[in-house]
């Protein structure tokens, strides 16, 4: 299987190329994104490992160009910009997956293997669903009862966390760690504020409430 690596850091690019070749992949390394679209058309990779911050042309722009050309290769973005809002930008630009730097090679390999298993023409989308609330993980779009909801990046991060284990109660501290990257409470009610906004958007217009508060414990999404 062919893997195209677009990475301007020579050490990282060489490491990826050697590692993937050792696993049996046929690789090609680009250190600049200017000729990415033409190279993809000629090389026809199944998976593209794309650095987010490239000289001359941003990785998100490349991603958008590839999708506008109807190129169906799976795209895995690598980036030191690993916050939820940056991941959302990458997915909305057309990426199939997003991995923050630094990364473990085994995780990268597992993600490439998972992307490779997806049929190029597959209609199936990765989704999280609780009752009539649906989060599309490929586009990071949310619908409740068929109506699209406009959520911020942080709201999406919270929703993904809670929906990934429906019924599980997440403490404020754990939400802070996963969504804001904070290990300590900044002594504000930031989590409560965002949960109140999220509840208004997903529950206020519906008789069945899905976002629940467990006093003294945290928050959960479930259908009771």
From TrEMBL:
The modification 4-aspartylphosphate is found at residue 51. PROSITE patterns: OMPR_PHOB, RESPONSE_REGULATORY. The keyword Ribonucleoprotein does not apply. Residues 2-116 form the Response regulatory domain. One of its GO terms (molecular function) is DNA binding. It comes from the Bacteria. It holds the Pfam family Trans_reg_C. Residues 125-223 bind DNA. The keyword Nucleotide-binding does not apply. InterPro entries: CheY-like_superfamily, OmpR/PhoB-type_DNA-bd, Sig_transdc_resp-reg_C-effctor, Sig_transdc_resp-reg_receiver, WalR-like, WH-like_DNA-bd_sf. Keywords: DNA-binding, Phosphoprotein, Transcription, Transcription regulation, Two-component regulatory system. Residues 125-223 form the OmpR/PhoB-type domain. This is DNA-binding response regulator. It comes from Alishewanella longhuensis.
